[in-house]
Design brief:
There is one protein chain. The protein is of the alpha/beta class. The chain folds into 2 domains: 115 residues, 3-Layer(aba) Sandwich (D-Maltodextrin-Binding Protein, domain 2), CATH 3.40.190; 102 residues, Periplasmic binding protein-like II (D-Maltodextrin-Binding Protein, domain 2), CATH 3.40.190.10. Helix content is 44%, strand content 20%. Helix 2 links the parallel strand 1 and strand 2. The chain is elongated, with a radius of gyration of 25 Å.
Length: 273
């Protein structure tokens, strides 16, 4: 900063003021850095936090990521996929800092040495929803008989390759209609969105996690499976054993179980743990 635009006493006063301002700014930078160091111990300024997560928790995790970025000044880099595809990628050696998945998959990855076992946290519970293509008549799926009727009358049925799809295959057996609907089932690879199949008219009736259907474009969300037939998936997170910054990764996981995340979890159609 130049201080020569004035002369004499005025120049001295201007230079003194400028010096105090610069010292105050410098102290502020040091203080902010110290605070962030306490909140995010061991973190490196500007370092990316690499997160792999299922599509089912995208809304919730994105909300937590925004808060993390504001607090830390670091960036989150996401890879979105299906739970089974994530388990395979991490199991095959792909490295992330934070891995989000089902407890069963995380526990299996921990046994394989890919996840630090004691870092697992369960943050949300989600049920299965039902939807049709937007503009189609709303079907009644509010009870067992109504759901059975909708399944038998549908020309095609979309289910995921993740936890909800496995459960539905068992449910069709329980309902006594497995043989009748078998030829109508479309089950895309892990990570595919049933809402997209519905919106393109590739299936008439679709099932997936509520969080993946209720706000999706191009579909009419009918509601959850009937209470007596509902199944819930727990969503969890863990720190990868080869994470760049394990402490910061744990801090992000703690954000997922905070009260701030609880409201986002409910908004997404899930329940906080």
């Amino acid at each position: 900063m130049k201080c020569a635009s004035s002369t004499g006493d005025e120049m001295v006063r201007n230079c003194s003021t400028a010096k105090r301002l610069m010292e105050s700014w410098a102290r502020g930078v040091v203080l902010t850095s110290a605070i962030l160091a306490c909140v995010f111990p061991g973190s490196v300024a500007g370092a990316d936090l690499r997160i792999v997560a299922p599509n089912a928790v995208k809304e919730v995790v994105s909300d937590a990521a925004a808060r993390y970025e504001r607090a830390s000044g670091n960036r989150t880099v996401f890879t979105w996929s299906g739970s089974e595809a994530i388990a395979k990628r991490v199991g095959d050696g792909e490295v992330f800092d934070v891995v989000l998945n089902t407890p069963q998959n995380l526990d299996a990855l921990a046994k394989a040495g890919k996840i630090v076992p004691e870092t697992r946290v369960d943050f949300a519970k989600s049920g299965i929803g039902v939807a049709v293509r937007a503009g189609q008549p709303r079907l009644d799926v509010s009870n067992e008989e109504a759901l059975r009727k909708a399944l038998l009358e549908a020309k095609s049925i979309g289910i995921s390759s993740g936890p909800s799809g496995r459960y539905l295959a068992e449910l069709f057996q329980r309902l006594g209609i497995a043989k009748q609907v078998q030829s109508k089932i479309r089950q895309p690879p892990s990570g595919a969105q049933i809402a997209e199949l519905l919106s393109r008219g590739e299936v008439e009736l679709g099932f997936q996690q509520i969080s993946e259907l209720q706000h999706a474009t191009g579909v009419e969300y009918l509601g959850p499976l009937p209470a007596g037939l509902q199944s819930y998936t727990i969503w969890s997170g863990g720190v990868h054993s080869a994470a760049n910054d394990a402490a910061t990764s744990r801090t992000f996981l703690n954000m997922l179980v905070s009260s701030d995340s609880a409201s986002a979890i409910r908004k997404a159609g899930m329940d906080p743990m």
